[in-house]
Amino acid sequence: MAFACPPKGNAPRLNHYGDHEDLGSSILRAECQHFVVSRDGYVIQMVPLEKRAWHAGASHLDGVSDVNSFSIGMKMVNTNDGRDPYTDLQYESVTQIIEQLRKF
Question: Which of the four, 35, 55, 70, 93, has the lowest number of CB atoms within 10 Å?
Fold first, then answer.
């Protein structure tokens, strides 16, 4: 998912979800995100916050293009098949990341 901080002070948004079954395959994928959150809530930072990651691809948000330039990408490890729920530990970790980002 991407935690987007659009220009002009709009509210942050989540706009991208992962579809990887394990931490290793999430890390090895070609696309890049700032954070990967494993099923047990372990967080790996892949890209420094001040650097651009390539998690959103060619995208638009509220009429603004190049979402990678103003968003933080987070990948939650999950098969994304509708039968594999995100874990409470993942939600807790993402909540902590978002709380820290709001202070950044």
Answer: 70
* C-alpha–C-alpha distance, residues 9 and 74, integer Å: 20
Q: Which residue has the tokens 């948000």?
A: 61
Which CATH number is 61's domain given? 3.40.80.10
**Cα torsion for 45, 63, 17, 11, to the nearest 10°?**
70
* Sheet (strand 2-4) strand order: 13-14, 2-4, 71-76, 35-37, 43-45
- Domain of residue 18 covers 2-103
- Average confidence (pLDDT) per 10 residues, the chain, 104 residues: 42 45 54 86 90 84 88 86 90 94 84
Domain count, the chain: 1
Question: Which tokens belong to 47?
Answer: 């890209």
- DSSP state string for 65-80: E-GGGGEEEEEE----
**Owner of token pair 């490890």:** 77
Cβ within 8 Å of residue 41, ≥6 positions away: 87, 89, 90, 92, 93
